[in-house]
Amino acid sequence: xTAEKKDIPMTDTIILASASPRRKELLEQxxxxxxxxxxxxxxxxxxxxxxxxxxxRLSLDKAHEVARRNGVDGRWIIGSDTIVLCAGQILGKPTDxxxxxxxxxxxxxxxxxxxxxxxxxxxKTGKQRAEAVSTDVRFRELTDREIARYIASGEPADKAGAxxxxxxxxxxxxxxxxxxxxxxxxxxxxxxxxxxxxGVPLPI
Length: 204
Hints:
The structure is a single chain. By secondary structure, the chain is of the alpha/beta class. The chain has a single domain, classed as Alpha-Beta Complex (Maf protein). It is built from six helices and seven strands, in the order E-H-E-H-E-E-H-E-E-H-E-H-H. Strands 1, 2, 3, 4, 5, 6 and 7 form a seven-stranded mixed β-sheet that branches. The protein is elongated and about 50 Å long.
């Protein structure tokens, strides 16, 4: 028998359902006060699902997984997911160094798309907002030595597409069209508008 979630007093607390330090830093950047409760939702790809549908579904899954837990005391829950799209392929986090190398070789000298989804649940009203935001990023040509040294730095290990634009990976970025924070992990412009629609008090 599955345990039902117990009724607990609800406070006007914001919860980030992510273990990503980049998303945490972005929310801190805009002055939000929140708790971090990493989601344990399973991440998988469904056939015939568009990339936009994919990141929105995972964002919702992550937020709902945290919302279902006993003892979670918060009103608004934010879930998010980021992927890189190149040559029709979805690039998530690399499984090992060889996988990271193949991803970076694929991105070298090409334009790719970074897609971040976000979902916000308002547990008090039952309302929610979810959206996918896209940013185009262009890499310069990378040498094998640069790729090897970048992988050795450890930075690609837990990043979609095996790079971090807010870290050493910025040295590879020749151009960007769209939201920079979207590439980091959260489209702050769109996210803050959605938070306002749901009644979240913001500093601006």
